[in-house]
Structure formats: structure tokens, C-alpha cells
């Protein structure tokens, strides 16, 4: 594949995009429902999210939120883990999940015929309202999480990402690694997971998203069914996440690793969702490193010099300021050169801003590509869930192209000046580390 | 957007999917059209029947290298312009190479299909292949190899396993090529490859989306119709001789955990009306690993706790020979030998005791549902069509798959397990983790000596 990284970043860009008949209502228990009716295919996609991501891990219990979500499907309402998995498979339903620093959730794709759909939803309801957290199963899943954490200690890209997250977020909860640490995960017990579940999975904070072959009446009934047995709001913990403090000085973290390539990550806290500068930053970042072969970073590091397979930059807006990151991999003996090119490209971008030609190209791609971002039920479900979780207006997608179209080069320059501080950035190099300054 | 809504509300009955349509231009270009009017978009995929299996020793990786060069310009569309033009139209483009084929694709608003086809037709015949561009892109591809294989222990194990499981068939060579071949590759190698394989009679154009057959016919004729066909080289079968005993390979690489891969030689789908074994093997993979509650998840991961993860894979669509692959990571305190033995026990259990009706029903339900779900993605529909046609199968085989799977009996699943999952056809590859700590880095491997 010619460009894996750019492709992933393109689809993983966290913004969503306009123009869908989104219906929104609130249940009496407080849950928010977002729905798009679509009968093209005989199937239903549904998800439910909670403010129960890794930012809510107590500071000494990294990984608690992740393990809690993971255990929902590992035994519930008198059914074993295998019975739950078999139950979904018997009707061809597919269970999935979401987890990041803010959010924990589950997704379900099922055929929409009455029999299969109700069987799948009944299982999902049990998972959400009666998870067992049986001690023996908790121990087994802990061991599996620990195995993957241990494996990650041998993967230079994960080592780099971990060092980056720690250096950018310091003591802020966004520094919590999603799956936790080996030392903390080892200590968890069933009752601790049950307690976290009770305090973070109430209907009050739940967002139910649905798209597919059901009516609004059915969607409402499904949302009620899924949320009826959730823990009471009276137990709910605070969902506040403190603001992310800015970095005060440049940090260079080098880690030696016996690999053919060095992993380079640079960045800092970016912006929160809803930040007034967001659209200017998003469009500007297309030119810097978000736009694949249209971007300056790709042009300078790959096209002109052949130093990397892929280089990117992105803003990941979260409830509070999520990361701004530039990343690339390069063979060890040109690590320093590649890093210099990236730094110079960023410095030039900050000093000059974008040209009108670059701005036009960025807008043409983002606006012209809008229909591709909502061309499947799966993609639309993700947007519904995001709109709901971050309290964005239901016409957010409709407004998106207009907001992009309105961005000017001056706004981009100012937004980057307000947000990005190249002299106070974190730089992580894993691989050939000794020579880097 | 409005159209999407309108279609959504109008189609209250569950519509049957429009039939796949196929035609051929007089120069041999095959065109497949799947109309899908759910969304005002179109996917274009141009499949060249030339992958790493068509390469020769010494120039491995040239198929993939040419894929990269296809973005480096023609006389009319200079370097960088292909991507720029597609991006300006709001589209995305990319390409991939595998053992069987090289595929170029664009995803666009439906009225931009013209642009994609015009550009694809241009680079099918007018590629520049400038030596300077080749030199830089060759560096990029070597970075890609380091990223995907050399620094990925499990990918390295897979690469070594393939080179041992196959000793004569070209599937033994990595798609991205051996590093030494990449280092010694020239622009002439790429040019030879381009002349040999890039022709309308060696390609299939797959279009999925909000378009009509007459519209696609018209565009295909206009842009590809005048490209001359040329004689294609004879492809030798290079059939792998039967394996006559178990093979083992151990791979040392910096890593924290060991890893196990087990691969058995199995057949692929060739004669669609008559072959049943590939379908039975696909059901077998489902019985072992179709869901978390399937046999590997239930017994090996959950009851015995021998593995922290274990999976089984089989893909019945390929131009070359097939493998049925199991892999896994041993749990803390368990050895690779214990994991291998646990996976073998599962295979023996199928061979000796067969599979239950409940398991059969479950796997079939998953296949039926998957055939509905795959219609949610225009791109994925195109992928399936392209794979079938490139591998020489009729598109009807794709629609027949559900019926063929439903017809498989428990006895047939047991039979293919007994026939193929035997030691004489087995290759076992293991990862032996080496230290990743600084102590080792103090004695750097050869290519770290360049550091100042």
C-alpha cells in the first residue's frame, strides 16, 4: 500500500461532516438518543457511550475504566462469557466497543428482523445492566490485559506513544494510558470494577446512537430497554475533567531501542472540542500535515527527500484539550536530519501561514469529500455518537462545510499562533536516540 | 445529502440488491459494475492481474515498487498531480499490492468518476518512470519495509514462515520484496514490469456506487477504449510439490512475548460449481474462531488459559496455493510448546469427534449476516468483486457463497480437517524474543553504526 498512515489519519480525523436527518430526544431517565432512520439495508447499528474513559481512572488505579468496560461482555445476568458470545453469533450479530480517555461504550450491529434483533438487544441489555464481574473471570482478563501491556513494552511505536502522552499531559488524567499499567491492573478486584461501573454507567450520562431499519417508535423503545437497568443516577460520580495545563518548556525524551527505524513524535496539548479556533486549526492542519500528499510535511520529508514512508500531524479535540501530534518513522541513521526537516517545516508554517492556493486546495478536498464521510451506516453511527457525547448541535454536520468554507488564511495563522508553541513542545525519539539534540 | 435522505425514506420495502453487471471492451478490459444508490458516491478500483507471484528472483518487490511509481507522473499529468487532482475533487486515492494483484482506487462524489477514469487510463499507458523519481521512491519503499516487516516481530515471523512453507511456489517471497533486492532495483526493472503487465487485457475495472451501467459503459469506452492490448507472458503454474514432513523455523527478534504460527497447506476455490472443500474449510475456521465463544476462544483462551490470544484464518480466494493458519500468544507461565499442543488438541478434537449442529448453525448465521453487512460499504463490495474476478472466478460465485456454505455438512468439515490439518503438511514458526533494553542497544546492530 502506497500510503497507509495518511489514509488512516484521513479517516480518523476527528471532525464530522454535514447534512443528515438526525433526530434527537431525551429519555425520562436522562439518556440522550440520536437516531437516523434508514431502511436501505435490513440491519440496525446501535451504540451506547458513557463518560467512563481512562481520564476517570483514580490516579493510582490506571486501567480500571478499561477493564470495567471489557468485563461487560464477560458474564452478565446469569450468562457466562461464552454464552454471551455464542448468543450474539447465533443471530449473526457483531459486538464491538469504543474506549478512549473520555468515553467508554459498546456497539452492536444486528440484522433487523424481529427475532434476531430482539435476541441481540436482549443480550446487550443484560451486559449493560447486570454485569457479573466474577472473580475468576476478572483474573483471567487481567492476565490478558497484562500480556498485551507486556507485549507493548517491546514495540517501539507504543513506547514512543506512551512517552509522548506522559510528557504532554504530566499529572493530568489524559496522561493515563487507556489500558493502564501492569502494576495497577494487577491489583484490581471484582468489587472495584463493580464500584466503577455503578458510578460511571448511569443513564444520566448515557448517549444512545442508532441508525438503520427501525422506526422512531422502535428506536425509542430500544433506547429505553438498553438504559432501563443502568445504575441509578444517585450513585453517579462527577464527570468533570480538569483543564489541561500548557507546557512550560521544551522536553526532549530519547529512548534507545534496537530497531531499524526511529520513531519520532512531536507535540503538545491542542484544543478541546468546541474551541472557537477549531475549524481554522483543522483546515490549517490539512496544509501542514493532515492532507496526505497535499501536506507540506509529506512533501518535504517524503516526496522531496525520501526520508519516510509517512508523516502526519493532527489535532485530537477531546472534552478538554487533546493532543496535537506530528509523527513519523525514519531509518536510524537519518533520524536527526528528518527531525530537522520537520522542525523547519513547522517553523516555516508558523511564520508564513498558508498560501491562498493551499487554502483553496484544502477547502476543495474537505468540502468536496463530505459525502464520502457519511456514505455508510457505520460511519454515520460514529458521528451520531460523537455529536451526542460532546453535546454538538444536531445540525453540526450540516454546518460543517459552511464553517470550513468561511475559514481565512489570516484566521489560520492567528489560530496556530494562539495554540501552537514550537519552542515548548515535547519531542520523543525511540530508536537511535543518542545523537539527538 | 438530500438525495440520500430521499432514497432513505422512499425505500420502505427491503430492496433486493441490483445484480452485478459485467462487460468487456474489445481490447480485453473487463468492467464490473455494482450499482448502489444509497449515497451519492462512487468507488473506482482498477485491478491489474500482476502481483508479487509474477515476479522473478532478484527483482522481488518490483510489483509494489511500480505501484508507487504509478503516482510519479505521466507526460500530461506530472509528478504529484494525480493525487492533487483527486484531492481537489474531494476524493481520496490510494493503491495496494498483494501476491495476486496490484490495485489502484479512488473514492469520489459520483459526478467525479470521469476524472478518476481519465487519470487511470492515462497512467495505464503513459507512465514517465524518471530515474530520479525512482531513486527517491525506492528509499520510501525501503522505509516501508523497515516499518512493516523489519521492526514488526510478528510480521517477520510471518515472512519467514511463508518462505519455509513454500519452497518453489512464488508465494514464498514477500510482497514488499527482500531488502537486498530493493537495494539493487533499477528503474529499468520497474519499466520492464510496467511494459509486461500494464495493459487493458490484464486489468479489471470495478465500479461500485451511485452510477448506472450505460454511464459507466460510455466512460470506459471513451477513456480506455483506444488503449491497445498486447500479448501477455505465459504464466507457469509453479505448483508447490507436496510437503512430506513437518517443517519448523525459529525467529529471533527484539520483543517481549513469544508468538506461534502454524500453517497447513490447503486448497483454494478454483472450480466454483464443484469444489466444496474450500467452503468446508471456511466453516472450519468459523468453528474454531468465528467468535469469542468459538473453540479457540472457549477452550484455549478461557478454559485452559494457555493463550492470551489465539486465532484461525483461511481465505479461499487466491490465485496461488492456500494456507490454513493458526496463531497465538502463550499466557504468562505457558510455553510455546504448551500452546502448540493445545491448538493441536483442538484440531484433533474436530478430526476425531466432529462438530456439532449448533456450531454449524452458528457459523452459517454469521456468514448470512456478513453478506448483509458487507453491503454497507461500497469499497468493500468492490474489493470482493475485484478479488473474485482477478482470481479467475465468476462473480456469480460471490452471490452463491451463502448457499454453498449452508450446504456444508458436519461430516464435510470433519473430512477436510482430517485430510489437510495433518503434520506432514504443517509449518510451525515461532518468535524467540530478544532483549529490547538499553543493554542491548549499547551493542547496536549493524545499521546503527552510522550514528554520529
**What is the CATH architecture term of the largest domain in chain A?**
2-Layer Sandwich
- CATH level-1 class of the largest domain in chain A: Alpha Beta
Low-confidence stretches of chain B: 1-15, 439-452
Relative helix content of chain B? 40-55%
CATH hierarchy, class of the largest domain in chain B: Alpha Beta
The biggest beta sheet of chain A is recorded as: 6 strands, mixed
Read across the widest sheet of chain B, the strand sequence of neighbours is 1-2-6-3-5-4
What is the CATH fold-level name of the largest domain in chain B?
A: Cytochrome Bc1 Complex, Chain A, domain 1
What is the β-strand count of chain A?
A: 11
Low-confidence stretches of chain A: 3-18
Using CB atoms under 8 Å apart, which protein chain pair has the greatest interface? A-B, 90 and 94 residues
User: Approximately how much beta-strand content do the residues of chain B carry?
Assistant: 15-25%
Short summary:
The complex is a heterodimer of chains A (437) and B (452). With 437 residues, chain A is α+β, with helices and mostly antiparallel strands.
Structure description:
The complex is a heterodimer of chains A (437) and B (452). Chain A has 437 residues and is of the alpha+beta class. Chain A has 17 helices and eleven strands. In chain A, strand 1 and strand 2 form a beta hairpin. Chain A is globular. Chain B starts with a helix and ends in an 11-residue tail after the last helix. The radius of gyration of chain B is 24 Å and the shape is globular. Chain B has a six-stranded mixed sheet with strand order 1-2-6-3-5-4, sandwiched between helices. Chain B has a five-stranded mixed sheet with strand order 7-11-8-10-9, with helices on both faces. Chain B has two domains: 207 residues, 2-Layer Sandwich (Cytochrome Bc1 Complex, Chain A, domain 1); 188 residues, 2-Layer Sandwich (Cytochrome Bc1 Complex, Chain A, domain 1), CATH 3.30.830.10. At the A-B interface, helix 3, strand 5, helix 5, strand 10 and helix 13 of A face helix 1, helix 3, strand 4, strand 5 and helix 5 of B.
